Every structure is written in structure tokens, then in C-alpha cells.
């Protein structure tokens, strides 16, 4: 049975996948058909149970193949997929096919979801606009910090560091990705203490301040933690979406919690980093948006500590903001950021971004509060169109930060 139809033009009802793949022992084009079969209705041999009607209605089509770039595109009829069931969709298009013997490398480069599938998911509840309304921050990037050290502070110390960061000038404070309900820092105590300090910081600064507690855990436990956040007046929850899994993210989004969801992508590189294998970050960004995160880590546009490049990260940002009938997701840049790169970063990202710095704030020579102030000063400088060097002449905290992390910017 053949899945090949190079004359086929996908319809608006098809789900289209683009794959990169390498093969061993069989022709490249034949492997595309095996991928199409295994990800839909087929298996390794002809079946006595297969009916013509099944083939006619459900067989996907390999409609594009290019030996030079080692890519193929496959169009799947939408009926192969259960609406609003991301695990089922991925068990098809990103499932068994990764283990096929003859396919030595396989990468899911892109997926175009048909409107019927897109509409079956909730998408972001708040998105960029909702977050701008909630915070009242309209014309500049958001400034965030991650409490550091990642693990080790107790609940009271955590809340105190958060307070220092808020009054110093950041908008958002978040837990780190591996901070959960720890013996030395229980979740419930941390939430209460930190949200209390948030209220104090709001009162003192007259600004809206955000706390993003990491609720990552087993799904039912996550729901409990999200409810606790809500009861204590927190508007945000943070989830490590890849280690928790897509099904639990759907549960959190569908639970009617009415909280802004911040998505950390810890572990994504196991899937995304190897350019000849895995699943691209572009696909992960699309999935996260469909399910309904409001903010997503997409990398630091090549200026930070994590692997990435301006072009790649802009591609992910475009996916989060393209018109598909769902709210737009706010991009989060994080990893090795500090005041000395804020100008380069905003030049690439524009203002619809959260600039998040852990080390680049708590590593300031004068401590967290001064670090937060330096970051805010750097953002103000860029928004006002003044160079960091010039701004640092009258802004001590920024000057100290630049001397430490970007002395070349003062020359
Ligand atoms: C940043 C961070 C983030 C990573 C994640 C960290 O801290 O908190 O988790 O940036 O990477 O622990 O490394 P620093 P990505 O500011 O101290 O580097 O956003 O690319 O998923
Ligand atoms: Mg982190």
C-alpha cells in the first residue's frame, strides 16, 4: 500500500508535518512512506484486517520529498486525531516513528495544525494583552528575576529576596524550575510568605508586582498547589511543561483556575538540541500555545548562557504571536542575562518580552535590590533611547553592573 502522492495539495483540514530524517538500508523515499504508515494506520506488513474504506478515508499522503535536504512533508486527514487530546496527537506524529530501525535520525521540524484541531484546544486565557492589562505595563519589556540560589533558601529568606527584587524595580519574581515543596522550603509556607511580601512591595512602590510560584509536581498535587496560590491571592502559576507532560498541562489549563500560566521549558533540549533528531522548539512552542500557556521560555536570542541564536529564537517568538485565532503568548528570555546585554536583547526581541535574570540580579556587587535597580535602569535607558554608557553616568547601580559584566559597554 502506497502513501506517496507527490501531486497532492494539502487541504485546510489536513494536519501537515515536516520531517528531517536519515535512513539506513532502504531508499530515503521509502522511509517517508514507513513514517507515514507507522504514524497513522499502517504497520510493517500488509494486514488482512485492512479495508479499502479505511485506506481511502484515513491514509496520509507523502506529498513532498527532497533528497538533498533530507526532508519530507506528510499530510494527515484530521479525522486521525482526537480533538483536544495532545497526547494522542503526539503518539501519532511523534510516537513510534522515532524508533523505526531503518530511520537512523528523525526530527519533527514543523507541524501545521488544521483549524478544527486548533479550535478544540483552549489556547492562552490571558496572553500578551491580558498580561499587559493585569500589570498595567504597556510600553516596555517586563523585568523578571528567578530567586537564586536555585535551592537552599528557606521560605522566609525566599520571600525576603523576592521583596528586595520587587522594591529594587523588577515586575516579576519567579521560583526556579527545580524548586517545589522542599523540606527546607515548604510550598505552602513559601507562597504565603512571598505573596505577603508582594503586597508590601506593591504598597511601597505603587506598582503591580507579580509572583510566579512553581507548582510542578504530580498532576493532582499541582491542582492543589494552584488552588492554594489562588486562595492566597496569587495571579500566576508556573509549570515545568516538559517534565510535567502535556496531559498534565492540559489538566491545569482546563481546570478553570483563571491564573496566568508561566511555562518553563526545562528539559526541552533533550528533544530540541540535536539538529538531526528530536522535535524542534518551534513545534513545542506551537503545542504549548494550543494547550494554553500565557508565557513561554524561548531562549535568550543568542545573548545569554543557553544555546540559541537570534534567528532561531525569533522564529519561536513568531509562532507565539502569529494570527491563528488564539491569544498571543508572551516570550520569556532567560539564562545568563544581565543589565549589560539589555540593549542588544531588546534590539532583537522588541518590547513584547520578559527579560528574566537570576545571576544577573542577585550577583550584583551590592546585592539583590541594587541588581534589580540596575536592570530597571538598563531597560529604561533602552526604552528612552539612551545608551547604557550615558545612562550609567547618573545611575550608580547600572554603572556597577556594567563594570562587572560588560566593561566594554563603558568604553
Ligand atoms: C536562568 C534560569 C533559567 C534558564 C532556562 C536558570 O538563570 O533560571 O531556568 O535560563 O533556560 O536556572 O538557568 P540565570 P531557557 O539568569 O541565573 O542564568 O529559558 O533557555 O529555557
Ligand atoms: Mg532556572
The CATH superfamily of the largest domain bears the name Ribulose bisphosphate carboxylase, large subunit, C-terminal domain
Number of domains: 2
CATH class category name of the largest domain: Alpha Beta
Unreliable runs: none
* Helical coverage, percent range: 40-55%
Strand content: 15-25%
Bound compounds: 2-carboxyarabinitol-1,5-diphosphate, magnesium ion
Q: Please tell me what the overall shape is.
A: elongated
| Structural class by sheet pairing and helices | alpha/beta
How confident is the prediction overall: mean pLDDT?
97
**How many beta-strand elements?**
13
Radius of gyration (CA) equals 23 Å
Report, as a whole number of angstroms, the end-to-end distance: 68 Å
**Helix count, DSSP H or I runs of 4 or more residues:** 18
Q: Sketch the major β-sheet.
A: 8 strands, parallel
What would you say the CATH architecture of the largest domain is?
A: Alpha-Beta Barrel
CATH topology of the largest domain: TIM Barrel
Amino acid at each position: 500500500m502506497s502513501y506517496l502522492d507527490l501531486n497532492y495539495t494539502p487541504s485546510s483540514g489536513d494536519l501537515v508535518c515536516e520531517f528531517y530524517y536519515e535512513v539506513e538500508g532502504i531508499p530515503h523515499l521509502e522511509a517517508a512512506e514507513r513514517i507515514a504508515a507507522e504514524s497513522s494506520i499502517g504497520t510493517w506488513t500488509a494486514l488482512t484486517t485492512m479495508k479499502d474504506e479505511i485506506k481511502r478515508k484515513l491514509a496520509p499522503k507523502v506529498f513532498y520529498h527532497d533528497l538533498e535536504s533530507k526532508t519530507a512533508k506528510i499530510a494527515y486527514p484530521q479525522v486521525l486525531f482526537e480533538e483536544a487530546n495532545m497526547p494522542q496527537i503526539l503518539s501519532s506524529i511523534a510516537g513510534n516513528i522515532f524508533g523505526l530501525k531503518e530511520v537512523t535520525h528523525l526530527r519533527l521540524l514543523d507541524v501545521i495544525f488544521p483549524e478544527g484541531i486548533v479550535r478544540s484546544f483552549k489556547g492562552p486565557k490571558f496572553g500578551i494583552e491580558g498580561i499587559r492589562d493585569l500589570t498595567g505595563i504597556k510600553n516596555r519589556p517586563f523585568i523578571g528575576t528567578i530567586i537564586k540560589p536555585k535551592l537552599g533558601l528557606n521560605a522566609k529568606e525566599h520571600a525576603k529576596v523576592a521583596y528586595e527584587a520587587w522594591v529594587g524595580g523588577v515586575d516579576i519574581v519567579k521560583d526556579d524550575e527545580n524548586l517545589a515543596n522542599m523540606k527546607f522550603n515548604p510550598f505552602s509556607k513559601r507562597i504565603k510568605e512571598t505573596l505577603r511580601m508582594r503586597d508590601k512591595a506593591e504598597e511601597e512602590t505603587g506598582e503591580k508586582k507579580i509572583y510566579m510560584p512553581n507548582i510542578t509536581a504530580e498532576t493532582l498535587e499541582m491542582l492543589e498547589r494552584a488552588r492554594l496560590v489562588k486562595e492566597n491571592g496569587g495571579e500566576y502559576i508556573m509549570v515545568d511543561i516538559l517534565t510535567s507532560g502535556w496531559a498534565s498541562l492540559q489538566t491545569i489549563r482546563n481546570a478553570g483556575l483563571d491564573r496566568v500560566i508561566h511555562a518553563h521549558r526545562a528539559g526541552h533540549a533533550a528533544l530540541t538540541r540535536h539538529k538531526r533528531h528530536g522535535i524542534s522548539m518551534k513545534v513545542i512552542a506551537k503545542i504549548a500555545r494550543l494547550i494554553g500557556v500565557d508565557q513561554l521560555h524561548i531562549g535568550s536570542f543568542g545573548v545569554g548562557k543557553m544555546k540559541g541564536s537570534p534567528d532561531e529564537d525569533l522564529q519561536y517568538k513568531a509562532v507565539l504571536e502569529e494570527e491563528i485565532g488564539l491569544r498571543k503568548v508572551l516570550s520569556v528570555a532567560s539564562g545568563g542575562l544581565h543589565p549589560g546585554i539589555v540593549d542588544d536583547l531588546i534590539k532583537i526581541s522588541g518590547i513584547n518580552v520578559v527579560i528574566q535574570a537570576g545571576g544577573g540580579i542577585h550577583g550584583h556587587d551590592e546585592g539583590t535590590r541594587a541588581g534589580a535597580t540596575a536592570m530597571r535602569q538598563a531597560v529604561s535607558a533602552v526604552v528612552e533611547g539612551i545608551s547604557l554608557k550615558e545612562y550609567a553616568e547618573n545611575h550608580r547601580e547600572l554603572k556597577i553592573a556594567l563594570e562587572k559584566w560588560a566593561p566594554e559597554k563603558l568604553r
